Amino acid sequence: MRRTSRLFEIIQLLRSAKKPLTAAALAEMLEVTKRTVYRDMASLQAMSVPIYGEAGVGYVMRPGYDLPPLMLSVEEVEALVVALSLLGRTGDKGLKAAAETIRAKVASVLPHSSKQPIDNVSLYAPAWGAAEPEDLDLSLVRRAIREERKLVISYCDEQGRASERVICPLAIVYFVEVINVAGWCELRQAFRHFRADRIRACSLSGSGFEGQSAELRTRWLTERRSCRGPARVSSRPEQPFSLARP
């Protein structure tokens, strides 16, 4: 997490906390060290953010401290409510947790007259959808996509045949009933879609594909649009594509 984002996150955590938060608790939530929390608190206090701390008790924020209100129309808020609810159907536990955090953040900064729709139960999206993968952490896949890192995966196809693959992950496709990881497969030298529920193990490779994801994603999208129907795991040969080694 970048420092500016972390400082904002600390403010949000303290504003919504029901009791003082210790440096250890904040460090665990933010996945940083206590020393980093101490430095961030000093920076926020230097910026006149009303945060107070007491040894053995924790940090609190003076009531009434507000960030500028988030100006959204009622329809924009309702669109956000539906979008956050639909995230519950992705089977991605990381995104589902983030959806609840977003909901709390938006509710805390909305003008009072606009807060009601954020929890309006009249806008309802059923939670059924793709099952959460048992052996795959989708947060790791999303990280690899962002950082242009290769993944090493153990994959089991529809016939039960196991294989080890090194892939350049390009996208996660959230269908209603299944999650697909799309990427360039070094074994097949082609774009492939791997069902998340068939990936038995996944880890970051020691190498990346920095600067190549944009071109690869354009090629993948072009091939995907040329196919009829939704993307699926395919065994047919693809047109070769030369991937420069980083």
Under the CATH scheme, the architecture of the largest domain is: Roll
The helix/strand series, from N terminus to C terminus, equals: HHHEEHHHEEEEEH
* Major sheet size, sense and barrel closure: 5 strands, antiparallel
Number of E-type strands: 7
Name the quaternary structure: single chain
Over all CA atoms, what is the radius of gyration? 22 Å
> What is the count of DSSP helices, taking H or I runs of 4+ residues?
7
Q: Give the strand content.
A: 15-25%
Question: Order of strands across the widest beta sheet?
Answer: 6-5-4-3-7
| Global structural class | alpha+beta
Mean pLDDT: 83
Can you give the helix content as a percent range? 25-40%
Question: Quick one: overall form?
Answer: globular
Low-confidence stretches: 230-246
CA-CA gap between termini? 26 Å
In CATH, the topology of the largest domain is named SH3 type barrels
Explain this structure to me?
The C terminus is likely disordered. Strands 6-5-4-3-7 form a five-stranded antiparallel β-sheet. Strands 1-2 form a two-stranded antiparallel ribbon. It starts with a helix and ends in a 20-residue tail after the last helix. Strand 3 and strand 4 form a beta hairpin. The protein is of the alpha+beta class and 246 residues long. The chain has three domains: 59 residues, Arc Repressor Mutant, subunit A; 46 residues; 89 residues, SH3 type barrels.
